[in-house]
Amino acid sequence: KAGVTQTPRYLIKTRGQQVTLSCSPISGHRSVSWYQQTPGQGLQFLFEYFSETQRNKGNFPGRFSGRQFSNSRSEMNVSTLELGDSALYLCASTPGGPPPDTQYFGPGTRLTVL
Amino acid sequence: GIQVEQSPPDLILQEGANSTLRCNFSDSVNNLQWFHQNPWGQLINLFYIPSGTKQNGRLSATTVATERYSLLYISSSQTTDSGVYFCAVGRGWNTDKLIFGTGTRLQVFP
User: Do A33 and B96 make contact, defined as CB atoms within 8 angstroms?
Assistant: First the structure.
């Protein structure tokens, strides 16, 4: 089975722009979660989608949004980019449960905001 | 929210040495996973272990849920074991949300 894929792998944007990141889960997995990793804050949960519905949300401003499509692929969008949004964005997939299950992570998208 | 503490923060070993990484969490959980992040940023799942003991080759893990800690053992370490090891926990039956610890950075020298 193919693993979790994320596109693009690298992205450079300027302040004020918006960006869309994509995540394709493992075939058959219905849950996709997104995480932000920065040197200062570590790995933080952004949101989780299951069957096209947001199932859980972390403590991020409304500039961060996401969605999931009927084929379980997910996108996250960050509007009005700030310097502090520079980070590695990781997505993970699981079959969806319950119960909770092993999470498989993609390679990440490294976003740099100038 | 749940707090996850990992120790030690840094570990330097010579090839062949054994090590134990610890993860303490502040509340009951029904989801606990150990990950290895390689130098390229890829997170690899090592164990899904909300309780009990598991082994996979040179790695093994034990979670004592009643005492709120988990241990990851690495035996006969190799240079390829270098990287950051994360413990992550979750609560709730119908969610895969994970709260990550701050990690243990392991460096293995030949």
Answer: yes
